[in-house]
Specification:
Blueprint lengths: L11 H4 L17 H20 L16 H6 L1 H4 L3 E14 L2 E7 L4 E7 H4 L1 H8 L6 E10 L5 E12 L15 H6 L1 H7 L1 H23 L3 E2 L5 E2 L11 E4 L4 E5 L4 H9 L4 E9 L11 E10 L3 H20 L3 E4 L2 E4 L5 E4 H9 L9 H10 L12 H13 L7 E7 L15 E9 L2 E8 L4 H16 L10 H10 L3 E7 H9 L18
Parallel strand pairs: 3-5, 6-10, 14-15
Antiparallel strand pairs: 1-2, 1-4, 2-3, 4-5, 7-9, 8-9, 10-11, 11-18, 12-13, 15-16, 16-17, 17-18
Helix pairs in contact: 8-9, 9-11, 10-16, 12-14, 13-14, 15-16
Amino acid sequence: MEVMAILYTTSKQSEKGMNFNMQENNNNQNTDELDMNHLMQVRREKLEELQSQGKDPFEITRFNRTNTAGEIKSDYEKFEQKDVTVAGRIIAKRIMGKASFCTIQDCDEKIQSYVSINDLGEESYKQFKTYDIGDIIGITGFVFKTRTEEISVHAKEVTLLSKSLRPLPEKFHGLKDTDLRYRQRYTDLIVNPEVKKTFLIRSKIISTIRKILDEKGYLEVETPILNTISGGATARPFITHHNSLNIDMYLRIALELNLKRLIVGGFDKVYEMGRVFRNEGMDIRHNPEFTELELYSAYQDYHDMMDITEEIFSKTAEEVLGTTKITYQGQEIDLAPGWKRISMIDSIKEVTGIDFNKINTDEEAVALAKEKNIEIPNKTKETRGDVISLFFDEYVEKTLVQPTFIYDYPVEISPLAKKSPKDKRLTERFEVFIAGREYGNAFSELNDPIDQYERFKKQVEARIAGDEEAGMMDEDYIQALEIGLPPTGGLGIGIDRLIMLLTDEASIRDVLLFPTMKPLN
């Protein structure tokens, strides 16, 4: 008799030793607390019984698993009628007198097992019948196919490896609350297999990017997370205190300044992929800690950074998804090289008809912003450059669906980028936009220590005036520039956003294993 799939269900009656499973929570997402406590108590009693018999599963330190379910199911001909030992969590179970079926799920797949009293013996089979959904077991037996062609393991021996003391949510009515899923990711990964797939893709994306950069001669390095100065970006930092040194320190908001110190020191190509921290708002695109890639190459500029950006995105998509043509939230996007490149001022003109090349003073720009009801956040932002940025944010960004490089940013919003030789009010900086979102930021790096010092001073003045995102004076970095930074191209890519793009996830929390959550209490 074939097993009927009963995924992610369990039974109150099975908890009491009955021979069949019913849903532990009666399809009710809000299982009564008393009910849950009872089920947990029954499981604890089963554990105590095992321990009294000298069969404590928690005393097992090692289990010799020979194969995973994925290996067996992907190459059945190799394993047919061969003995294997598999291990995983029970996710389905059907007791039928002297023979039973159960399904276990391991790291990459699930596989069915046929268990009978004739193979295990009366005592072991009786013990097997008391196992619960969620228990982790090991199975030794031979591989075969059932009458319905399902690849299975005919069990000769079953070993309880870990007792689950808390019932799993029922598959179709259990762990759907997104807040609970993020808080209990361990359970989410068990009962929602598609979630695990997202994180397997995440890992492959990161390893692919590393491979691309390693093959291009970039050296992967590590730089400090704790710093005495917050720098490298405009963002509000997290502040902590070092007790031994009795000083405040900042969690890094960017990787930039230390990586450029290494270029000064003689490494021509470096990159780092790691966590950065920004004490800012949280939404579907922002988490207080996130993964960033930054790379720097001596003797290159922001045009070279455009080329490597296209290469990273397109090659990663090709390697991970098998194509550069993707769908993100219903939008068809082609990541193949040849992305549109347009200056920020020209992009505003293209969308609105307003030409900032004809607006040459701060006063003219501020007046235009007021006319168009563009809110300027504070007095320090009442400059032509800041207004250009505000117009871009308001009118242009949301229109950029296909990959687009927006370049030549105003100097006021680009304190670390080299000025454009064509217009000193602009910098050789770009950001890349896809599906109305920014995915990367790059510069021809500023290597003039005198100019850099003056820009740091303006950041300090803005900070004193109340801008908590403004940068600080970094005297040591100025000293490094005085030693000499060669012409350098630098690029930063938000890895979590790239993963969202390639996995078609709308929220950053769906690509972070443990997103930041407010404590329930």
